[in-house]
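Recap slide: Arginase, sequence and predicted structure.
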Amino acid sequence: MSPVTRSVALVGAPTDIGAGHRGSSMGPEALRVANLGARLARRGMHVVDRGNLTGPLNPWAPPTDGYRHLDEVVAWNTAVYEAVYAELKEGNLPVMLGGDHCLAIGSITAVARHCREKGTKLRVIWLDAHADFNTSQITPSGNIHGMPVACLCGYGPDALTGLGDVTPATSPDVFRQIGIRSVDEGEKRLVHEVGVDIYDMRYIDEIGMKAAMEEALADIDANTHVHVSFDVDFLDPSIAPGVGTTVRGGPNYREAQLCMEMIADTGRVGSLDIVELNPAFDKRNQTARLAVDLVESLFGKSTLMR
């Protein structure tokens, strides 16, 4: 189905329940202020804004048995899972407005279920500074926004690994991680053991964004559902200061644009997360505006003259 005929549903999840800093709960509103809906409508899409999901408040408590706010994280992810799955059932393209990256457990669990029911192959393009493959044994913080990929692959508490109809929701081979540059030592060993496909910044520096993306997208075919999980800290903080966990040395504006345009060129984008936007650290909403600009490129806006 061409992007022109797509019906896009914006689903807000305003919580920083899995994060180490307050503020990403304001992300959905910042994206709306930056006119995400109107900009996508300008691309010929039918856009409906479902408003915000509701869930428990952030108790800002220390870890219990290795996890911070586990019950609340489960509640929020359950709400995201149900909302995203409902949009996919309706034939809509869900755009989950986070919130912190723990919410990808819910959204990708829903997308994985949808793909199994449709008989389509799932490919998750994970745009992030972090691999997010921590476990409670690896990280002392207990912040679950560092654990979503691990949980999706079955490494985590039962309440999160068993969120959907199948456990685990996905396998490591569905992920293509782009822009990684901050990985804990124990996490590094684990991603090597399980075989996550990672295109870190060193690799991108060596071969260029174009060649890296060609590799990452090589096996996408007409029977592939592409889910993009866009953590705004993927971008270099010099252009995107409005995130909770900045890591220097990320993609610049042109590299990020090329990345998004090449994903768009596959024609297979079927769902999207936009997460970890933290207006408390931003300057005049510039990071939200940049994120919206890049999402437009993901949905077909191009600088190509040819």
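Residues 3-298 form a domain with the Arginase; Chain A fold (CATH 3.40.800.10).
The chain has a mean pLDDT of 96.
(End of recap.)
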